[in-house]
Amino acid sequence: MFPIIIQGLLLSGLYALIAMGFMLIFSIGRTLNLAYGAYLMIGGYVYFWISQQLGFPQIVGFFGAIAVGILMGLMKHQFIVRPLKGHHVAVEISTLILAVVLQAGIVLVFGDSSKILLPIVPGVVRVAGATVTYSILTATIISWLIITILYLFVRRTHTGRAMQAVSMDQKGAAISGVDADRINLITWGLSGALGAIGGAFFASYTQLSPAMWVTPLIISVAIVIVGGIGSIVGTLIVAHIIGFLEVIVVSVLAPELRGVSTMLLIIVVLIARPQGLFGRAEN
Amino acid sequence: MELRQRHLAFWAIFIVGLYLMPELVSKGTLRTMIFACYLAIFAVSWDLLSGRTGYISFGHPFLIGIGAYTTAILTKRFDVAVEISIPIAVLVTMIGGLVVLLPALRIKGSYFALVTLAFMELMYQLVQVIRPDLTGGTRGMSGIETLTRGAVNGYYLAVTLMVILTFAAWLLMRTRLGTALWAVGMNEESVRGSGLSSTKLKMFAFLASAFTAGIGGAFYVHYLGSIAPRALFDINFLFTILVAALIGGAGSIIGPVFGAFFLVFLLEWLRPWLPGAERYFIYGGIALLVYMYQPKGMVAILESLYSRFWRARS
Amino acid sequence: MKKTTLIGIGASLVLAAATATADIKVGFIGSLSSDTGLSTLRGAEIAVEELNAAGGVLGGQKITLVTADTGEDVTEGIKAYEYLAETEEVDFVISGSIDDVSLGWLPRMQEYRIPTLDTWTSYIGIIDMIVEDRDAMRPYFMNIASDEALATLYISFGADVLKAKMGFESVVVLAEDTAFGQAITGLVTEALAPVAGIEVKDIISYDINTVDFAPVFAKAQNSGADFIYQISSVNSQVMSSQYVKLQVPMAMTGVNVSALGLEYWDDTGGNGGGISTLSPLPSVGFALDPVSQAFVDTYQAKYTSRPKIPHFNGFNAYHGLKQAMAAAEEAGGFKDVDAWAAAMLKQDLILEKDGQLWLRYGFWDYDTVEPVTGRTYPHNAYFDLAPPYDFAQPSMVVVQWKEDGTVGVVYPFEFANTEFTLPSWVPEK
């Protein structure tokens, strides 16, 4: 019982961080950034390159990944979202093509093989019957920290509230003087940063490989669909639902049904409650 | 339905050109064209549903895969004749797709895309888990009956299939149904307001799309001679279909055909120069640039060239 | 231009065209970005160079090698084979494809009937196809021991090392949910209990995209077995590195495809100690005979990027390509597939080390029954499943990576250069 709770909490924290960036773009920018998984991939590889191949301390690697993530987000906004004037379909397709291009690029630079990252913090600790690596403990704690900061940012600051406004009604927000374009820019940059750091954590937990962008993307999609637009708290809760579902299915049922269960959950929720568990009903 | 002379002329030239190909090009190129034809069929099937209505489907590999697996299992495991298994496969695709995707049509916009993506992922997982003795599990099946031998015969079959399906789809879209679907894409509320059932329209488009996908998938697997879940229920396959349709010109039916040929040939032509992973990088890069230059697709580019040509004349 | 000059140019062009079409063309099919593909490709390249330097083949013709990338994708594999057959018109195909991709282009091979040698794919189902339909599969040869042979010898490892030396009496199988995982699981569980006296307590099948293996390992521990038998060919490093990071207190061995190459240590950032796996020969840490060593020396002088040492399939490609050419010499070319296949079946290369048989590259014919498994393996590479391994090399060896980054062979004892040990964090039984 306890091991499941602990494993569920840890995994869900990671999933929540990963899904945050995707959710922001979906809520505020109203687009599916299918290249979101690519942020994770690039973030992971930059972290790997800086901290493992070049030998800098890990913290430098993290900040390097964040910096590249922000840069990527801003560039995407500038070169893809802006020129396509927010045609959602066009942006979605372009980001998908971009993800494939980036994957090919990674293969060119780093080769095809998967790499295991050194643990963020080495060692294990046994808690209530479950073995926990310090690595994932750190990742989960930092994830919660980041999510809390994000929440406060969105709720308390001026920019944050502007973001909320844009997410609810772009035209209305524009009328009340919010510069939607600037907000979008900030959102994309933020999403890139979150994706990159999520990627570094995800990679240090599983592995780094050119195809690694697909699974986190599906997880983010699942969380956003089930959770619905616009809510950080919603995303957090749903990440836990999905994380726990996975751990329970693996521990109690059959590990091979891990992927199937998540997909079934999405489908059931979408059919029963299309706006997601916590979303606003779209009109 | 208005059929101008120039349309029919275009189709005539197009069809004749295709049938003359085996005389003009090498076998290797014919093989590439066969893949292009099948991709064109898939792209057209996507276009029927998503091109005009704006309901972007990320689940077409799901439909194609159902058609492919049905006929593969029937012919290989149960020794059913191909003449029977293919129609059954098409039927199963349409029914299965209907049962599964129709509720999803209630969902709008980006959510629809996500649901269809989830279905594709689900099929990928299910095919491996449920009755792997029938489906071949992750390894898939090899040694599936092929309908033709050799590049030339395979080509004629593929081209005939593509021409029939594309022409039919094109005619279909030129009826009022086609116009209504454009309207759904632009403003579904007004369509409903004018008394039409947008649900019925979407369902019809969906059935046409599933039909095409089912036939395409069934013949495809009999051409390949093998089937694997990674080849069908895969984001890369999805990506190829989508990009083909969009680069060609969504909604136009012909556009996706162009797009399919463009993409397949681009990838093959790069092979002698860039043998490895660089190929995908360049290929993806070119696709992205073309798409960003004109998101309405090559059809739009061609049309603007054409009208500039006419203007220059007069 | 003067007439004579024109004639001269014309004549040399014709001559050039004649010699060009007289070249023997070999096509490589596999991934150009993976260690696996590159091993085969480079093995083939070296063989081609050596043959050309020695004067060419089939009456002094030079061999040219062309490539077709599959990207480890099934559909691309089919396109690649078609490209080699129809555009490049190769005479012979050497494949470094993985199992799935080989299954994809197999129908094409049957259609074009181009002699093909597979150096990595080990799926027994393909050998079954050869048994069932000799004629259709005539051009196909597989010079790595099929996975049935690999799994069978593993049972002996279970009996001789795990049971006899380590005292293990029960096992929990942790297999990936793929066709490969299921096949090996079947082979192992059928034989492990009766032959090695090891009881299979549980079979846990996991999804290849599993992110968190902690629950899976917890389940394994709850089974109460003495050790874990891992079966993993996809994303193997995720499971094994988490095993190391979580310091799971159970011994683990089995099949871990990522641990077959020397880059494993770098790739895992050092989180690979204690992992053991079965490996076809020659494996990492395997002592080489002089001929194979010479090949490795040539390889290392020529290539500076990874893989630093060719994987076993590189050796297969090197020897196999030479044998394919020798068979073609005897059959008068590649065109008569039946004659070529008959000649290929007769190819037999025995490599000795210190006066005893060390490696043998040859092919089983249609009728010889392998004594231990009691079945035939036509067109499959020779292997030996019981000591004293004087017929051929064992189908596999078990290698173990130590926590200091070294790797050695632990079984069979005749080839071992180190002992199977438990990782430092696993308690003694």
UniProtKB/TrEMBL annotation, chain A:
The keyword Transcription regulation does not apply. InterPro entries: ABC_transp_permease, BCAA_transport_permease. Pfam families: BPD_transp_2 (PF02653). The chain crosses the membrane at residues 6-26, 33-50, 56-75, 87-111, 131-154, 185-205, 260-278. GO terms for molecular function: transmembrane transporter activity. Its main location: membrane. GO terms for cellular component: plasma membrane. The keyword Transmembrane helix applies. GO terms for biological process: amino acid transport. It is found in: Cell membrane. It is a multi-pass membrane protein. Keywords: Amino-acid transport, Cell membrane, Membrane, Transmembrane, Transmembrane helix, Transport. Belongs to the binding-protein-dependent transport system permease family. LivHM subfamily. This is Branched-chain amino acid ABC transporter permease. It comes from marine metagenome.
UniProtKB/TrEMBL annotation, chain B:
It holds the Pfam family BPD_transp_2. The chain crosses the membrane at residues 6-25, 32-49, 55-74, 86-105, 111-130, 151-173, 203-225, 237-265, 280-306. GO terms for cellular component: plasma membrane. Keywords: Cell membrane, Membrane, Transmembrane, Transmembrane helix. CDD domains: TM_PBP1_LivM_like. It is a multi-pass membrane protein. One of its GO terms (molecular function) is branched-chain amino acid transmembrane transporter activity. It is found in: Cell membrane. Its main location: membrane. InterPro entries: ABC_transp_permease, LivM-like. This is Branched-chain amino acid ABC transporter permease. It comes from marine metagenome.
From TrEMBL, chain C:
Keywords: Signal. Pfam families: Peripla_BP_6. Residues 24-345 form the Leucine-binding protein domain. SUPFAM superfamilies: Periplasmic binding protein-like I (SSF53822). The keyword NADP does not apply. The keyword Membrane does not apply. This is Leucine-binding protein domain-containing protein. It comes from marine metagenome.
